[in-house]
Amino acid sequence: MTTIFNNWDIVARGWYLVTTSKEIPKETVKSFDICGQRIAVLRGEDGKVRALDAHCPHMGTDLGIGSVDGNHVRCFFHHWAFDGDGQCQDIPCQDPIPAGATLQSYATEEKYGFIWIYPDSVAPTAVAEFDELKHHELAVVADRPLTRKCHHHICMINGIDVQHLQTVHHLPVDLELSLQQEGEQIDFTLSGEFLNTNWRERLGRAILGPRYAYSMRYAHGCLGLLTMMKAVRWIPQLYMLYAYRPTESGETFIQPIYVTKKRAGVIGWLVNHLLLWLTRLSYYALRGEDGMIYDNIRFSTERLLPVDAPIAHYVRYVNGLVPSRWSSPHPKSLSLGRGTLQASSKSPSPKSLSLISPSPRGEGAGLPPEHSRRR
Ligand code: FES
Ligand SMILES: [Fe+2]
């Protein structure tokens, strides 16, 4: 039995953040470890970014130490040259190109100031966007990336964990969930009335109005798009993204990115930066209150309550994603009584084991049946 949720052996299809666009200027190549793969990313003389498996099919040299020749990457060792489709186009010492002189190529996109890669040569969709910001030029600020010592599927749940908004963040709103799924993208919108029982709640109502809402859009289980300050007075909506990817050491790399619609002129510049700063402030306030949870959590979906329904939906959504070619060909899993312990190949300590229950009872919001489906 193999599930995708919280499973280090499966890399779901999706857009994974590589590096900033600035880090790969024209006619340069550099290799990166992305989701357990070594990937060479190059920018040709035409300004276009391309990505290939990094190890040369001749003798395995890392193409990241090679050079860019026109729009091809040329291997440092014997100077074979590869185009963006991974096909060898030139071998200096002979004319015929042998069969098998090819590399897997990957779709790339540049968005939000970063280079993104998809684990296949063609991507069926683009990097996710906010509906309200589509077709607008954006002002973008990237924050310092951080790491967490758990799988990114666990980190991503924080945004829809309704109980903890009150117990940890003291957000005085009674929230209701609505959700919409389209392919490998799912939108959770949580909205409700500010409570009205103490001075803090009354102050919130007086400033922001009686209602509050926010939404989390998850794309491919590796990108989160958060919209804050929906349905409130005075403050426009605030937008930020969280790009996630697993690291070689069994941790999660997280890149926070703040975005807003780009407004023109000096006043526009000031408004843009004020909103980006407010977004960062809101994020830091929330992150500071519960970031420590993720450093030694042993996540279980065994006893979810009805109030945890968004989390149950999320787990079902993740388990419906499609494994990519970057997944381990032999995912490890071992049956243990009524649950299944999934062992990570990257961090084999007991900390990396997560209990996945078949959950035959279907209690409360409990685990959806799809969670334990056979793949
Ligand atoms: S190892 Fe790359 S050309 Fe020989
Ligand atoms: Fe939180």
Task: Map the helices and strands.
Elements lengths: L15 E5 L7 E7 L2 E7 L5 E5 L13 E3 L2 E3 L6 E2 L5 E3 L14 E7 L2 E5 L19 E5 L3 E3 L3 H6 L4 H6 L5 E10 L2 E10 L4 H10 L2 E9 L3 E8 L7 E9 L5 E10 L3 H26 L18 H11 L14 E3 L2 E4 L11 E3 L19
The chain binds FE2/S2 (inorganic) cluster and fe (ii) ion.
Would you write up a description of this structure?
The chain is of the alpha+beta class and 375 residues long. It folds into 2 domains: 16-118, Rieske [2Fe-2S] iron-sulphur domain (Rieske Iron-sulfur Protein, 3-layer Sandwich); 131-299, Alpha-Beta Complex (Naphthalene 1,2-dioxygenase Alpha Subunit, Chain A, domain 1). The chain is built from 5 helices and 21 strands. Fe (ii) ion is lined by residues 158, 164, 168-169, 286, 290.
The CATH class of the largest domain: Alpha Beta
> Can you give the mean pLDDT?
85
Estimated share of beta-strand residues: 25-35%
The major pleated sheet works out as: 8 strands, antiparallel
Structural class: alpha+beta
Q: Helical stretch count?
A: 5
Give the full name of the CATH homologous superfamily of the largest domain.
Answer: Naphthalene 1,2-dioxygenase Alpha Subunit, Chain A, domain 1
Gist of the model:
The protein has 375 residues and is an alpha+beta fold. The chain has helices at 152-157, 162-167, 199-208, 265-290, 309-319, and strands at residues 16-20, 28-34, 37-43, 49-53, 67-69, 72-74, 81-82, 88-90, 105-111, 114-118, 138-142, 146-148, 173-182, 185-194, 211-219, 223-230, 238-246, 252-261, 334-336, 339-342, 354-356.
